[in-house]
Structure formats: structure tokens, C-alpha cells
């Protein structure tokens, strides 16, 4: 008997989700029906008191399923996924419990979630600047009034400027759904389905049921949320599924990670610097004296003879 301080939970009957029940069938009264990878190891206890108190599972295990049998008919076997040790349970019909089937499996290790931060990579390109110093040229003109035109030379000096360019990589958006096919078997007279339990912690269980119990007034086809594969001439229900995996476990939500990479691209700018040339010219009106060389040979003398001409005022003569 349970201790006086324990509480009793009555599984309330439901009409909207009748999928928490299995009809009376000799097959459902045997623990071997529920044995396997889905629920682990199952055992049957009878007779049992009403209410039934959940015992403690074996070391390292956890309870996966409690099947309460009371009365007969379409809802005689009631499924309770994930029952708790020390908790009292009754059949929703209020009838005395004739037997229970207990299933337990090894406790699963907690899932560790690792969050990775993608650093932003920045590349810096050095800026190279080239400067051209203007060249000064001085030209000395002969001693006369002379005008000289000197062309101006322009020199192009390349200058490199660094302009950052940002490149953004976009990963798939959050909420993307990937459809994972549920592996089922339709061997012989049975078919494996994902049976909806209306439990918030274990919403689906994997069952292998006779094909004859799929269609009909109380068949699994009448359960809105059951996932049933096609077989023979039956087209299937809620198939294929994108919410559960091959063992009828809910798929985890899809997450998205976004990373940004910054790349620096050099841009070349050309600047033109003028070159200055300086020419020195004697001032206007300046007179330069040029010495004249004369020759006196024998009986003649060389002279500069004035001609009164504006274009050729003197001529060189050798006279006696």
C-alpha cells in the first residue's frame, strides 16, 4: 500500500483525443506487445490494488510506460507515458484495476548545447603614397634682350588609398523545416505507426498494431494526430511526417548562425603635380660691351667701318 502522504492522480476520460486508449485484446494484455526499442523491458503485475502506486525502477533506469487494465471494451487498456515513481494512478472509468504493465529503459544522458561565436575577420592593407618633388631648371641667356618660351611639364604621382569593403554571408533563415521520413514496417498482418498520446512530454509512441485496427469505427485512422504509413490499398495518414524521427520522437527546432567577413580592397588615386621651369633673362635696355679684335699686318690695318645702316651698322675692313 502507498504511504498516507502520497497523492492520487485520476486519469480523466477524454472524448476529443481517444488515442490514449487501446481496446480489449489478448495481445494488449501481454507485456511482450510493448517490449522492444521503444519502451525497453516490460513486465506485468496482477492482481494489484486500486489505486496503483508506481514503484521505483531499477538502478539507472526510468519508467517509460504504464498500461492500466480495467473492465472490457474499446477503452479498457489505458496508456500513461512517463509515469512517476510514488504516484498513485486510477483508470479513468473508475473501475477496479485488474492488472498493470510496467515498462522501463535506461535513463538518457542530458543533451549539452554548445554555442559558437564566429569572430569578424578584418584585413588591413597598408597605404603607399608617392610624392614627386618639382625640378627647377635655370637657363642663362646670352647678354642680349631675348625672350625664351619654356613649356610646363605635368607629372602624374600615383596615390594609393585603402577603402574597406564589407562582405556579408547569409545562412539559411530560422524556421527552415527538414522533412525526415519515419521508418515503418508493414510486415505480415501488422503495421508500425506513431500513435498520438495527448501527452505534452511524450506526444507520440511507436506501436506495431494489426492492420485490421487501422480502419473502422474505433480504428487508428479516426485519430486526428496518428501518423500511419500507406500499406496494401490504404493511402496513409499524416504521411510523410516532418515533426518526428524514425522512433516517433519530436524533431528539435532548426537554428541559424550568421557570420560577417570584412575584406579591405585597395583603391588607387592619381594626383597630377605641375613641374616649374625658371628662365633668367637680362632686363630690357641693358648694353653689353663686346671687345673687338683688330689685326695690323705689314702696311694694312683692320678696322670696323661704320655704314649708317640700321640692320648692319658696321663692316670689317683691312685698309692700307
Short description:
With 320 residues, the chain is mostly beta strands. It is built from no helices and 17 strands. A five-stranded antiparallel sheet has the order 2-6-5-8-3, with no helix packed on it. It has a three-stranded mixed sheet with strand order 1-7-4, with no helix packed on it.
Strand order of the largest sheet: 2-6-5-8-3
Radius of gyration: 53 Å
- Gross morphology is rod-shaped
Q: How many β-strand runs? A: 17
Percent helix: under 10%
* Low-confidence runs: 1-5, 12-19, 111-116, 137-142, 167-171
State the end-to-end distance. 169 Å
Question: What share of the residues does DSSP label as strand, in percent?
Answer: 25-35%
Q: Please, how many helices?
A: 0
What characterizes the major β-sheet? 5 strands, antiparallel
Mean pLDDT: 73
What would you call the structural class? mainly beta
Order of helices and strands: EEEEEEEEEEEEEEEEE
Summarize the structure in words.
This protein is mainly beta and 320 residues long. Helices cover 0% and strands 33% of the residues. The strands form six sheets. A five-stranded antiparallel beta sheet has the order 2-6-5-8-3, with no helix packed on it. A three-stranded mixed beta sheet has the order 1-7-4, with no helix packed on it. The model is unreliable at 1-5, 12-19, 111-116, 137-142 and 167-171 (pLDDT under 50).
Amino acid at each position: 500500500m502507498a504511504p498516507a502522504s502520497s497523492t492520487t492522480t485520476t486519469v480523466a476520460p477524454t472524448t476529443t483525443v481517444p488515442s490514449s486508449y487501446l481496446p480489449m485484446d489478448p495481445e494488449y494484455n501481454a507485456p511482450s506487445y510493448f517490449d522492444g526499442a521503444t519502451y525497453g523491458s516490460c513486465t506485468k503485475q496482477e492482481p494489484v490494488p486500486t489505486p496503483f502506486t508506481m514503484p521505483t525502477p531499477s538502478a539507472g533506469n526510468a519508467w517509460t510506460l504504464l498500461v492500466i487494465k480495467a473492465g472490457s471494451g474499446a477503452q479498457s487498456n489505458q496508456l500513461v507515458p512517463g509515469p512517476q515513481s510514488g504516484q498513485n494512478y486510477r483508470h479513468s472509468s473508475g473501475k477496479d484495476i485488474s492488472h498493470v504493465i510496467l515498462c522501463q529503459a535506461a535513463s538518457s544522458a542530458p543533451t549539452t548545447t554548445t554555442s559558437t561565436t564566429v569572430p569578424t575577420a578584418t584585413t588591413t592593407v597598408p597605404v603607399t603614397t608617392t610624392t614627386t618633388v618639382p625640378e627647377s631648371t635655370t637657363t642663362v641667356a646670352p647678354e642680349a634682350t631675348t625672350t625664351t618660351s619654356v613649356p610646363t611639364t605635368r607629372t602624374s604621382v600615383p596615390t594609393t588609398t585603402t577603402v574597406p569593403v564589407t562582405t556579408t554571408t547569409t545562412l539559411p533563415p530560422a524556421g527552415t523545416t527538414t522533412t525526415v521520413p519515419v521508418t515503418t514496417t508493414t510486415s505480415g498482418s501488422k503495421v508500425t505507426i506513431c500513435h498520438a498520446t495527448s501527452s505534452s512530454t511524450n506526444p507520440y509512441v511507436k506501436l506495431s498494431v494489426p492492420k485490421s485496427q487501422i480502419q473502422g469505427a474505433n480504428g487508428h485512422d479516426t485519430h486526428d494526430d496518428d501518423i500511419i504509413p500507406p500499406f496494401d490499398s490504404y493511402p496513409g495518414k499524416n504521411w510523410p511526417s516532418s515533426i518526428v524521427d524514425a522512433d516517433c520522437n519530436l524533431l528539435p527546432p532548426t537554428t541559424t548562425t550568421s557570420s560577417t567577413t570584412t575584406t579591405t580592397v585597395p583603391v588607387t588615386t592619381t594626383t597630377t603635380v605641375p613641374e616649374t621651369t625658371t628662365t633668367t633673362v637680362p632686363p630690357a635696355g641693358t648694353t653689353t660691351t663686346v671687345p673687338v679684335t683688330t689685326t695690323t699686318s705689314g702696311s694694312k690695318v683692320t678696322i670696323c667701318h661704320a655704314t649708317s645702316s640700321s640692320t648692319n651698322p658696321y663692316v670689317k675692313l683691312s685698309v692700307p
